[in-house]
């Protein structure tokens, strides 16, 4: 890997930021990622696959793995019942997590690293509940002009009702959605909704952002199949150099 992977502290929790080699010369876009478990070796593997595409198919960018305190609380937008009996209910603390990210962590990183701060250069992304949190953050925070939800938990109770009554960003906002073809084939009624809910999410966002600013990609396999490849395709779409950046 040609770029640099740097640890940082956030209120006692450790996060990681990947900086491309090009960041030594100029500030770069930033992607903030919500991960279940932050593993430096996984970041290295992902960015080793992205680096050959820098300047060819996509812009060089920084990747920030955001340190979370509680996955089921930080990544859920409002309280909701658990999808399985015997599991704890979701606490719905995403507003607090996003406020910390946008008001404290993001400014701190921009002060210490060469990151472009404007929304059109800033993305938020995640997998599973992290994908749900990424879309919610995109819709509620002016800081993010791009979002990617990979196998997002869009079966979440109340999600479509919320989406039907919220105003998305202006036409400069862009959203990438992906889902495995087998994910809706679940016996659990909560999880079985994910296919239709993801389709409907793409439709509702495209109505507001424009069809060219929203894409839904179907992947082979179930929820955890080819996770690295799904991240790769999402990042390539978000940062592709064919997009004309807003002035």
Looking at this protein, list some descriptive labels.
single chain; 247 residues; alpha/beta; 8-stranded mixed beta sheet; globular
Task: Describe this protein's structure.
- This protein is an alpha/beta fold.
- It contains eight helices and eight strands, in the order E-E-E-H-E-H-H-E-H-E-H-E-H-H-E-H.
- The protein has helices at 40-50, 71-74, 94-112, 129-140, 159-164, 189-192, 194-209, 227-238; strands at 4-10, 13-19, 30-34, 62-66, 122-127, 146-150, 174-180, 214-219.
- An eight-stranded mixed β-sheet has the order 1-2-4-3-5-6-7-8, with helices on both faces.
- Strand 6, helix 5 and strand 7 form a beta-alpha-beta unit.
- Helix 1 crosses helix 8.
- The longest helix is centred in the middle third of the chain and has 19 residues, at 94-112.
- The protein starts with a strand and ends in a 9-residue tail after the last helix.
- The model is unreliable at 243-247 (pLDDT under 50).
